[in-house]
Amino acid sequence: MSHPALPVDTILDSGSTSRLLPLPQIPEGLAFVRRHAEAILTSWSVPCEVADDALLVISELVSNALAHALPPATLRLSLNRVTEASTLGIAVVDAGPSHATLKKERPPEEHGRGMAIVDALSQNHGTHVHPGGATRWAEIALGSVTRRI
Fold it and tell me: What is the DSSP letter of 85?
């Protein structure tokens, strides 16, 4: 089974770096993405506590895309160390919700907790709907752990 190749860091400017990771549409896709995201965060020297929170946020956003959105989907991690308020950006871009997801009704206790986790662990988060899909994003401060649980 072939996994997508990992691109090298893209230097956006003197203090920002970004990495794109295509989300594989395979049963072990989340584990694959988590392993590679952890390696990226380690290579960027993201503090362990922040990396742990980031991996939870990544897991929630990626799980949602793999379960509910149309492919293709991509994880974008970005490190911004330009200002005093350094941040880690996490974004999942997908082709929008699948029709099955739109029609499927689930009891409230079976969904909805993932975004509460994202809210508790990130400084900011949101969704941007655009032609051809949607981007779900979160920002985590590098200087401190942001837990609001």
Answer: S
Q: Report pLDDT digits (tens) over 130-146.
A: 898 999 999 999 875 44
Tokens standing for residue 26: 């395979």
The encoded tokens of residue 138 equal 């979160």
Measured distance CA(16)–CA(106) in Å, rounded: 40
* Spatial distance between the Cα atoms of 101 and 87, rounded to a whole number of angstroms: 32
Given a contact cutoff of 8 angstroms between Cβ atoms, the answer to whether 108 and 92 are in contact is no
Average pLDDT over residues 13-29: 82
Q: Phi first, then psi: what are they for 33, rounded to 5°?
A: -65, -45
- Counting Cα atoms < 13 Å in the Cβ hemisphere of 36 gives 24
| 21 touches 39 (CB < 8 A) | no
Beta-carbon neighbour count of residue 136 at 10 Å? 23
Supply 74's token pair: 């991509």
| Model pLDDT for residues 77-123, shown as the tens digit of each residue | 999 886 677 899 999 999 988 765 544 455 555 555 778 899 999 99
Q: State how far the alpha carbon of 104 is from the alpha carbons of 72, 83, 99, 101, in Å.
A: 21, 44, 9, 5
CA nearest to 18, candidates 94, 86, 90, 83: 90
